[in-house]
Amino acid sequence: MVSPTPPSAHVQGNCVAQPRLPRAVRMVSLRAGQSDSIRQRPGETIFLKGGEQVKPFPPHPDLQPLTPTCNPPCLAAAMPPGVSPGPEGPSAPAPSGRAGRRAPPPPRRSPGLPEAKRRGRARRLHQEVAELQDGLQHLDLAAEKPVPSGTGLAYDKELTSFHCLWDKSFPECPARLTSIWTKLVEDGLVERCVPVQARLATEEEILLVHSPQFLALMASTADMEEGKLRALSDTYDSVYLHPNSYHCARLAAGTVLAVVDKVLSGELRNGLALIRPPGHHAQRERMEGYCLFNHVAIAARHARERRGLQRVLIVDWDVHHGQGTQFIFEDDPRVSYNTPSVLYFSVHRYDNGAFWPHLPDSDSSAVGRGQGCGFTINLPWNQPGMTDADYISAFLQLLLPVAFEFQPQLVLVAAGFDAAIGDPKGQMLVSPACFAHLTHMLLALAGGKVVLALEGGYNLHSLTEGVSAALGSLLGDPCPPLAGPAAPCPSALQSISKALGIHAQFWPSLQHVEVSALSTEDEGVEEALGETGGVPSPVELPCPEALPSLEAPPPRRPPACTGLVYDERMTQHYNMWDSQHPERPQRVTRALSRLQELGLERRCLRLPPRLATEPELLLCHSPEYVARLRATVGLRPRELHRAGSRYNSVYMCGESFEAACLAAGCVLSAVDAVLAGQVQNAVAVVRPPGHHAEPDAACGFCLFNSVALAARYAQQVAGRPLRVLILDWDIHHGNGIQHIFEEDPRVATTWQQQQSPWPRASGHCWETPHWPHLQSWHYPCLHTPSPVLSMPSAWPALCTVPTGPAFVSMDALYAVTPLSWCPHLSSVAPVPPAGLDILAPCQKCGCQGENWVCLTCYQVLCSRYVAGHMVAHGDASGHPMVLSFADLSAWCYDCEAYIHHPTLLPAKILAHRLKFGNELPALL
Ligand code: X5A
Ligand code: ZN
């Protein structure tokens, strides 16, 4: 019965293709250290968002490179802290090429190379400058102002001064507002907000959306008798009029504008307008569904036309479809840019048209018209009983990917609470806590500029609880835990799939989802729908006996909400043989001084650093291993060198053991403070890193596995079963963490999406049989066969959408460097020689390890951190491109960049086959 999401008539009509955002949009999101796609070069100034010039970090006596002899200055010195300048992750400790060497002219270069190199550099620079200048013209300068603080709360008792004169039990009643206010006072939220004075909307403001005739008609109701009011009301659908209705509707609209203006000016971070009558059913010339004026639509137009915003997102989670808002914007004639600038998203009860307002326009096939195509997104529910899981799924799968792509500058929420459990109209099962989560998810958008305007909500209990939860999120409180099923019900899945199928054509961020997943299992869906009547059965979590009810800790107030732990002594761990080793002491000193410069450090509560104790280390490591590391204290350099080289990519000095104990101890200190409720969350600025460390072996610059220790320690301290999630967003696979926990169902779930070729043999693609939430979706293809990965569309997916068994290849993640400009691809041998042995020892010194192969002559040589033979080879031969056997990345010496291009595929395919025994996943 479920059709494979046919495009609606609308869609087939005169719709343009995907919405195209101005280039500047992408520029705006770039920040120093976050993007590899803009690489700062020595002496070069890079402009980022807001026109701020990002200079190399200011000289700081203890922050100079250990060997300040590079000429030109080390790329490393110009990079933000923590950003390694080249292929120098643990995966690629090899031929970091020119950076960091004194760059003597190579003795025998092929004659064309210097010239090609010069031209390549010039072309690159030219291109980047052009792009940057282009971007600068549209930069949103407001975004660079200091982050605004304060949550606005607007309310006026005056708004309770109207009611239905002829129906005492009419659901839209004054008690809605008074009970919300009482609840917010009780919960201590009012005193934490900044009061915003309610005001009347001017006539001019009302006319941004409504016609003069309609405004005049509404104004005339202020002097009408009850009989006339009733007669007039009856000519509309579901409205009543009171002599104060007009006044209050204007007050409600003006109050939303007051909050919006304070948020847009930066006076407040976000806000909530407690208003009635509601607004989202009101149309240009019509009142409807308890609504007179469409406050949110007026505010969106106001933001665009009088405050100069280009993109406003309206999220309507009222259980009714905001058809008024849709009609106002679906074919917005006031489009002044290439694209419509108001995106309307509504999730609502539809019941295949049986639910009010009974319009086919409320279905997901309505996508907007003309210029507005794709900018109306409807998600209709066809059954009552939708739960938190359904709403959260709707946000994660549909709204957020589009919203991240749209990049709104303001989010307006038509915040009805009639989908809350117990509401007589909605018949849904959304918990009050869920509104905190929905609000929280939106705070990631528009720099946090989120304004909620009250719409429906007719069960006074769930209404007040819901408003309180949402306001808590605006104030920065942690979201209360959710109970109930984790997976969306079949009917919700069906609705979401259909909407995804329709909107994937407009929004590239939706295109990775295989929406036919459900339609191929129509019978299953029908069965499930029949069996459960749409109310989903509870889902089994992986370890049922270990599910304590987690009471939310009392919310912390700033400034003591975030802990920070750091100890200078961690810098005493260093590589005495290579001062340019990427895992160097400045990583933490610079991180800390940057936190100070930004004023973030003083907003944190400093937590006491400490050493991890022996019993603590034994939570994850073997006694033999701990003893072996302890024994390195006081060793002579030669012995230290030997001690380090028994592991993969590890160095040690006399202070390494202590530094590693400190790194782990600092993380434990952070855990202590969080579990004790002293802080809400915490940051540990520590080194050496930990996630590669195995129970009985150091690995990849890591000695003790600080995060794994912290997880076990948290369990121990809590004294009860505690569910711990470890998120590892390091570019490399956290082999150590995985090995420590993979057979321990009680402890932790490592949640790692990528199959990483480094360290060798540690990656496997995880199936996820335990997570019902993921079973509903197929993600056939996160990696693109095209050499250029479009990060802007991939990011939201990676950030917010659980991606299940799919994995992202390292190729895709590295392919963020501009690719077209490498002038040396022609030097790559088109076909690797048969019989190439990628695991071969270095042809110069015979050492084994993560060696590299020259892509021109296919010599296998060792890395910079072993004997540097590949570097020497590059200098001597002029062969510019090498392939890492560790992670199959290709590095160009002259571009100082990872290069990916179809030309390199034959070599990568062969290397992958030899290394993993299967095909390069991006090609499958
Ligand atoms: C704002 C709102 C509901 C109208 C229901 C009409 N309106 N039957 O919730
Ligand atoms: Zn409603």
TrEMBL record:
One Gene Ontology BP term is: positive regulation of cellular component organization
Its localization reads:
Cell projection, Axon; Cell projection, Dendrite; Cytoplasm, Cytoskeleton, Cilium basal body; Cytoplasm, Cytoskeleton, Microtubule organizing center, Centrosome
The GO cellular component terms are: axon; centrosome; dendrite; histone deacetylase complex; perikaryon
Q: Which InterPro entries match?
A: HDACs, His_deacetylse_dom, His_deacetylse_dom_sf, Ureohydrolase_dom_sf, Znf_RING/FYVE/PHD, Znf_UBP
Write out the entry's keywords from A to Z.
Actin-binding, Cell projection, Chromatin regulator, Cytoplasm, Cytoskeleton, Hydrolase, Metal-binding, Methylation, Nucleus, Phosphoprotein, Repeat, Repressor, Transcription, Transcription regulation, Transferase, Ubl conjugation, Ubl conjugation pathway, Zinc, Zinc-finger
Q: Which reaction does it catalyse?
A: N(6)-acetyl-L-lysyl-[protein] + H2O = L-lysyl-[protein] + acetate; N(6)-acetyl-L-lysyl-[alpha-tubulin] + H2O = L-lysyl-[alpha-tubulin] + acetate
Claim: Heme is one of the keywords in the record: no
* Primary localisation category: other
Q: Which cofactor does it need?
A: Zn(2+)
Q: Which residue intervals are annotated with compositional bias (Pro residues) in the record?
A: 82-93
Ranges for domain UBP-type come to 820-918
Which GO terms of the molecular function aspect are on file?
A: actin binding; histone deacetylase activity; hydrolase activity; transferase activity; zinc ion binding
Biological or metabolic pathway of the protein: Protein modification; protein ubiquitination
**Compositionally biased spans, kind Acidic residues:** 520-529
Residues covered by region (Disordered) = 77-124, 518-538
**Is NADP tagged as a keyword?**
no
* Family per similarity comment: Belongs to the histone deacetylase family. HD type 2 subfamily.
* Protein name as it appears in the record: Protein deacetylase HDAC6
In which organism is this protein found?
A: Alligator sinensis
